[in-house]
User: Fold this.
Amino acid sequence: MQTFTAVVPAAGRGSRMQANKPKQYLPLGDKTIIEHTLTRLLSHPQIEKIVVVIAEDDHYFPSLALATHPKIEVTIGGPERAISVLNGLACVETDWVLVHDAARPCLTHADLDRLLAVVARGEDGAILAVPVKDTMKRADPHQHIEQTVERGHLWHALTPQMFPTQQLADAIDAGLAQSVVLTDDASAMELAGFKPLLVTGRADNIKVTQPEDLALATFILQQQELA
Assistant:
């Protein structure tokens, strides 16, 4: 059975949550958000190791019970997400890597299974994603509608995003050298000429970004436990 490493960038501040600590350390039921996220990854049999990338001044992560888990390695991130991911990749020894947001605690093993199965198909990597359902509008700088965007081929990108480790590291390096804003890992691979596959994931694999997302994530986790 092929094994994988997961890189979890957790050096961000999450300012949109308007909280007194980085959002990944906010409570979600009986655990913090990041503990839920890491537990989902650790419990999958094909995840060999998790590299958690934290801020240099992070005093929250070392206090978590999971911080000393034998499958978890901690490294220091940078001023932007792409640099943090690159630092995490330096700790990866497996041929393939998954990059997963620290604030996506509702990832299911079924989604992970579908994503990992792509490796056998020889694709340029893959990401979990959900087709856009709502009508999409493009706005001008003043938030007036400029046009309605055809949604037929639009997807919401989720995580994990899975790529060959060295290819991803090279792609991020190249993107940073060109001062390109890399909003996710797939965008670095696209810039390098690759065409990653979109793997349909569950819409409840939400990223906790706004204060109201905490209640939604709590509800989703409760429903998943009952399923």
About this structure: The chain has a mean pLDDT of 95. The longest strand covers residues 155-164. The helical segments are 33-42, 81-89, 109-116, 165-177, 185-191, 213-226.
